[in-house]
Write a structure and sequence with these properties.
Beta-Lactamase; 44% helix; 21 helices; Alpha-Beta Plaits; alpha/beta; single chain; 3 domains; TIM Barrel
Length: 552
């Protein structure tokens, strides 16, 4: 009787090693039937009769026993052909990779490898850990796939970039746990507003993005963006706090606004920037001219940084005149930038940019120091007014800066007048008021500039004893022809008098305006009629000229 050829694994040493392997292993005979299975494989197929059955029958039986999730039979065939590994999912949530290796004697080994941990790690690598949304890397990969599909099918997709308004102030004042809770709530609202095939990602911080495909564009993107502006602007309740934020959105369409992911995201970002610049809480579609404007802005930013480094700024000094004595009682320091190629650049163009890019603190420090140094040299101890940006109040260093400047220049603190607008008080009123009190303790004077243009100026006057109220020029220049503007000027002057505050009328350009201002009892005037901004030498000369007040 001929001896039987031993099966794979009948060697005791090899069989013992296979039995103890952490991976599940099947030995298939020459007919593709299970001849032997190790302990790990038997554990996966607990209760299933494996011996003498082919792999497909074993897998189907495991599904019937509730051990495996249903699989694609075609994939089993490809696995048996050695073409690819078969992906299997167990009922308890594990992921198995099933692969076949043929041996020289016609038998084969089937190895079951538990890849759950690796797959979870791979998922985490492309997911945002806080919100569970796709992260920037996954978003970029999915956008590449979407753009390829658009190219094949001649369809249009949309990218919507979202930036939360006022999130930083909530994160800073209430702490990161509340901020994280708010981001989770935002992610849930965005997810609830999109379709199942849309891709939502958190790109970082308070930036989110959506890929919208398979829809009629631009109508679908416009409808979604409008819905999100409303939805994300509604009140949130996080850890007992009622929170109010908003969202600005930028929309770009593929392929017209960008044929590759980076270009398309850049276009959506430009549209987002426009939405924020135009007041936030809105959405904008990308337009080609936005790119030209952004390039111009970047060019101006480069020139602005160079101007700061090369000291290309200068100060002009506009006289402030007493309505009672007709004498110059002070000057307001006004920054000027004469670019070697652009010519004069308006502060309305470069100051907001300086605030945005973080350069305003350096510029403000230079203005303060230069103005104080100049004022010390004047023949008369008149006041010098310096404007403060709301940004300069951040960080809590403003009072120490003013104190060190006064000490370094030797200027009497009572001659320095710091002008703020209501914008400085809106974001963090209590902190700003605390800084203003520190400044008043140094002996400097504080003025409320552009009074009358803010919705809560009266509240601020009640909270802080300003030295002076400056009436916005929009009321002064219309008061002759508009009785309502005249009434507002009259009311502000009376308010200042009752609170013990001086009043300065800005933008006086005619003798008739000056006469009316005098009749209303305004303390001081400032404008082209009483004195245009002057260079440093001209301002000093005005103080020594006997005819300096003849015009008024």
């Amino acid at each position: 009787m001929a001896r039987r050829k031993p099966l794979i694994g009948e060697n005791f040493g090899a069989e013992l090693a296979m039995e103890q392997m952490p991976h599940g292993v099947f030995w298939l005979d020459g007919l593709g039937r299970v001849a032997r299975a190790n302990a790990a494989a038997r554990q996966v197929f607990a209760g299933v009769d494996l011996a003498g059955r082919d792999l497909t029958a074993c897998l189907e039986s495991a599904v019937r026993h509730g051990l495996l999730l249903p699989f694609n039979p075609d994939h089993v065939a490809r696995c048996l052909g050695g073409d690819e590994a078969l992906a299997l999912e167990t009922q308890d949530g594990r992921s198995l990779s099933c692969s076949l290796t043929g041996l020289s004697d016609g038998t084969a080994l089937v190895i079951l490898d538990d890849v759950t941990r690796h797959q979870n790690a791979a998922r985490l690598a492309v997911r945002d850990p806080l919100t569970g949304l796709a992260n920037r890397r996954e978003f970029h990969l999915r956008l590449e796939e979407t753009l390829s599909q658009c190219a094949r099918t001649a369809t249009v997709a949309a990218v919507i970039c979202i930036d939360l308004d006022h999130f930083k102030s909530i994160n800073d004042t209430l702490g990161h746990p509340v901020g994280d809770g708010l981001l989770k709530a935002v992610a849930q609202r965005i997810t609830s507003a999109v379709r199942s095939n849309d891709i939502v990602a958190r790109l970082g911080g308070d930036e989110f993005a959506i890929i919208q495909c398979g829809a009629e564009q631009p109508q679908a993107a416009e409808a979604l963006a409008s819905r999100l502006v409303d939805l994300l602007g509604r009140t949130y309740v996080v850890q007992g706090h009622m929170l109010h934020i908003g969202a600005s959105l930028g929309v770009a369409l593929a392929p017209s606004d960008g044929a590759d992911p980076d270009e398309l995201i850049r276009s959506a970002d430009l549209a987002l920037y426009r939405a924020k610049a135009e007041g936030r809480g809105a959405f904008r579609f990308f337009e080609p001219e936005m790119n030209a404007r952004m390039q111009a802005r970047r060019s101006l930013e480069i020139d602005l940084r160079r101007a700061m480094a090369l000291r290309q700024f200068e100060l002009a000094y506009q006289p402030q005149v007493s309505t009672r004595t007709s004498q110059v009682v002070g000057f307001e320091a006004l920054i000027r930038w004469r670019h070697p190629d652009r010519g004069p650049v308006s502060p309305a163009d470069f100051i907001p940019l300086a605030e945005e890019i973080g350069l305003i603190a350096q510029i403000g420090e230079w203005v303060l120091r230069t103005a104080c140094q100049t004022a010390v040299s004047w023949a008369k101890p008149v006041s010098i007014a310096v404007n403060l940006s709301p940004v300069q109040f951040r960080g809590g260093k403003l009072a120490s800066l003013v104190a060190s400047t006064l000490a370094a220049t030797g200027l009497d603190p009572s001659r320095l007048e710091l002008e703020i607008t209501e914008g400085a008080l809106i974001d963090d009123t209590d902190a700003v008021l605390a800084t203003l009190r520190q400044l008043r303790a140094l002996g400097v004077r504080i003025s409320m500039d552009d009074f009358g243009t803010g919705y809560s100026s009266l509240t601020y006057l009640q909270k802080f004893p300003f030295t002076k109220i400056k009436i916005d020029q929009s009321f002064v220049q219309k008061m002759v022809a508009d009785p309502e503007c005249a009434a507002i000027v009259r009311a502000v002057v009376a308010l200042g008098a009752s609170l013990g505050m001086k009043t300065t009328a800005e933008g006086v350009e005619t003798e008739q305006q000056l006469d009316m201002i005098r009749q209303e009892g305004c303390t001081e005037v400032q404008g082209y009629f009483t004195g245009r901004p002057l260079a440093q030498d001209a301002a000093a000369a005005l103080l020594t000229s006997p005819t300096s007040a003849e015009k008024i």
